[in-house]
Shikimate kinase (Blautia argi), 157 residues
Amino acid sequence: MPGVGKSTVGVILAKVLGYEFVDSDLLIQKAEKRLLREIIAQEGQAGFLKIENRVNASIDMEKTVIATGGSVVYCTEAMEHLKKIGTVVYLKLDYEILKKRLGNLRCRGVVLRKGQTLKDLYDERTPLYEKYADIVVDEKNLNIEETLQKILENLEK
């Protein structure tokens, strides 16, 4: 989900592991030469997801921590590709905590259908995150360092 700390934790994790860091939302913006919110406004949700699927399914990197947009879980091809090339980590956060962290979702480039609430989105995506995750880190009561430590412990297993 947006606001769980994917990019923040991802950058630190990459430094600790000596890996590169890539934010796939930035890859999408670079490929499309538009901001995420512009892509969503111009192409609609379905058009954005096609672009997101294509870009994420084409990522070909080694020794790289990749932070994806939360909506990538709707993209079967991309998720299967990401699981094939690496370890998928789901940063799980309780809805109430997540709600407090987030501001304007549209400005963040979050894909919401007309009339869909953050809670609807959370309830819809959670089973998908769990389906694709190789590692689940429940961030409840954890700070960034503790989240990072949990990821590292799970990667060592």
In short: The beta strands are 20-23, 64-67, 89-92, 135-138. Residues 66 and 77 are 16 Å apart (CA to CA).
